[in-house]
Design goal:
single chain, Rossmann fold, Adenine-specific Methyltransferase, domain 2, 2 domains, eight-stranded mixed sheet, globular
């Protein structure tokens, strides 16, 4: 399901069906859904448009990404007009890349379009990556390959109809967890998908070091938030951080520069029960 307009490395939209089943199994349909590391917000948008959750809280520390979601919520007409009127060319790519690199000098809606333009024209949607097809546009695929204007405008307009049910913030995930720890309702559900432990530095502007991952693990496990899950690339260090939590290990296909399949792991809070029929390529159950 491609309802989000953003492409994202490791985008989790493909596990929407698993999270939907998880919410249904735990009586959390109609809950408030929170993503501290929203990025492309693939799961959040899917669940909202399917009326599985009553509202979504999209949070991202990356300011340009925040600007994009804030503009979808408050000024979608601007984005749609820019998409319709803008030529998808290398001249425009250089122009939008310059805005992105100097975003402090521009307003939110201009940053939003720059972020969107680069996300749709760069390799694998990575904002700091090179343009699809290369600067000489000598590759098989050109920069407009992932830029179907009509379809992208339709996605934005559809999301915008739910704007009153969308909250957008630009907080460090650590601060967000602290702020909602004692105010989060019992029927809220938090899905945390932090930057990859192993390859995060090459994919995201806001990547984590070892101690950042550890701090997040300590914060969420010590919080009073009842319903949460955390997904990661599977590795020993992360497993140690959540060693007292039930988890499942599964295969997930990625597209980031090249297609490959990697093992991921989801950790569950004590309050969340795991249905046995999750539609994932499960390698191991540790419950």
């Amino acid at each position: 399901m491609f309802n989000t307009p953003l492409r994202y490395p490791g985008g989790k939209g493909k596990i929407t069906s698993s999270i939907r089943l998880l919410l249904e199994h735990n009586g959390l349909v109609g809950s408030n859904y929170i993503e501290p590391y929203a990025g492309g917000a693939g799961v959040a948008v899917n669940l909202l448009l399917e009326n599985i959750v009553s509202s979504i809280h999209i949070n991202d520390l990356n300011f340009p990404v925040y600007c994009f979601w804030e503009t979808i919520k408050n000024n979608p007409e601007y984005l749609c007009k820019k998409i319709k009127d803008t030529d998808i060319s290398m001249d425009e790519w250089y122009r939008q890349n310059a805005i992105f690199k100097n975003y402090q000098s521009f307003d939110i809606k201009e940053i939003a379009f720059s972020t969107f333009f680069l996300n749709r024209t760069n390799r694998s949607g990575i904002l700091q990556a090179g343009v699809i097809g290369g600067k000489k546009q000598a590759g098989i695929w050109k920069l407009d390959t992932r830029f179907n204007k009509e379809n992208l405008i339709e996605r934005i307009e559809k999301i915008a109809t739910f704007s009153e049910k969308i909250k957008v913030t630009n907080l460090d995930a650590k601060d967000l967890i602290k702020s909602i720890s004692h105010s989060c309702s019992d029927d809220s559900f938090i899905y945390m998908d932090p930057p990859y432990y192993k390859k995060g530095k090459g994919l995201y502007q806001n990547f984590y070091e070892h101690n950042d991952h550890l701090l997040i693990a300590e914060l969420i496990q010590a919080s009073s938030i009842k319903n949460w899950i955390v997904s990661y690339d599977h590795n020993f260090n992360i497993t140690e951080f959540y060693k007292n939590k039930k988890n499942i290990i599964y295969n997930l296909s990625y597209t980031a520069q090249q297609k490959y399949k990697g093992a991921e792991v989801i950790f569950f809070s004590d309050n969340v029960d795991i249905p046995k029929n999750l539609p994932l390529q499960i390698i191991a159950w540790n419950i």
